[in-house]
Amino acid sequence: MNIVIVNGSPRKEGRTGKLSAIISKKYNIKTIDLSELTLPVYNGQEDQNELANIKMLRAELENADAMIVATPEYHGGMSGALKNALDFLGSKHFKDKPVALMAVSGGGKGGINALNNMRIVLRALYANVLSKQLVIDPTDFIQGGIALAEESSYLVNGLIQELKIYTQLTKKLNEEWSASNY
Ligand SMILES: Cc1cc2nc3c(=O)[nH]c(=O)nc-3n(C[C@H](O)[C@H](O)[C@H](O)COP(=O)(O)O)c2cc1C
Questions:
Q1: Residues of the chain with pLDDT under 50
Q2: DSSP assignment of the chain
Q3: What's residue 169's pLDDT?
Q4: Which atom of ligand 1 is nearest to the CA of 11?
Q5: 178 alpha carbon to ligand 1 midpoint, in Å?
Q6: Which atom of ligand 1 lies at the shortest distance from residue 18's CA?
Q7: pLDDT at 86
């Protein structure tokens, strides 16, 4: 199954990128890293469709069976970088695909608003967003950010296992659906 994680942080040394790297390595999941992928501000002009980074973003997400979307919480919402990237995408990249949400907060009980914000936007893209979701705080990181504390790691694992179950289920239902139409 092809699961992709989107690092929604524009900051090269950001904690969301660190979380994405930990997950990518542990679960062998490909990362779309918005701190590396330079995208223009979406303006709806035809010429943007020809940009290599836009083509790559669209192709990777169209081919994905499921996604993990991780964002920093910035001013009570997802990052502008992530919202801008999502504006280049549409329902063909997300429709009926399971999506797990993660927010990386500054602590102090932040993160929930970014999760709710992503949930609203991804519903508009027809994604099947899982009920289970996670906020990762600065204190969840250990070893200078290259690993997660045991309890946080356990919670991340639970979310990813659930995403895998829903991805398998979706694949099976799609196969049965295609077979019944022949
Ligand atoms: C512009 C800006 C706004 C922020 N707003 C919030 C916020 O509303 N809630 C919160 O919990 N943290 C907030 N933070 C802290 C970040 O969420 C936190 O530092 C997080 O680790 C950032 O992720 P990043 O390192 O991947 O960029 C904000 C940080 C920045 C730079």
A1: none
A2: --EEEEE----TT-HHHHHHHHHHHHHT-EEEETTTS--PPP---GGGGG-HHHHHHHHHHHH-SEEEEEEE-BTTB--HHHHHHHHT--HHHHTT-EEEEEEE--STT-SHHHHHHHHHHHHHTT-EEEEEEEEE-GGGEEGGGTEE-HHHHHHHHHHHHHHHHHHHHHHHHHHHHHHHT-
A3: 97
A4: 27
A5: 44
A6: 26
A7: 98
Residue 182 has a pLDDT of: 60
Domain locations in the chain?
3-180
State residue 114's pLDDT score.
98
Specify the CATH number of the domain 3-180.
Answer: 3.40.50.360
Quote the pLDDT of residue 9. 98
Determine the distance from the C-alpha atom of residue 67 to the mean position of all C-alpha atoms in its chain, rounded to a whole number: 5
What spacing in Å lies between the alpha carbon of 135 and ligand 1's midpoint? 12
Looking from the CA of residue 10, the nearest atom of ligand 1 is: 27
The pLDDT, as a whole number, for residue 94 is: 98
Calculate how far, in angstroms, residue 151's C-alpha sits from the geometric centre of ligand 1.
22
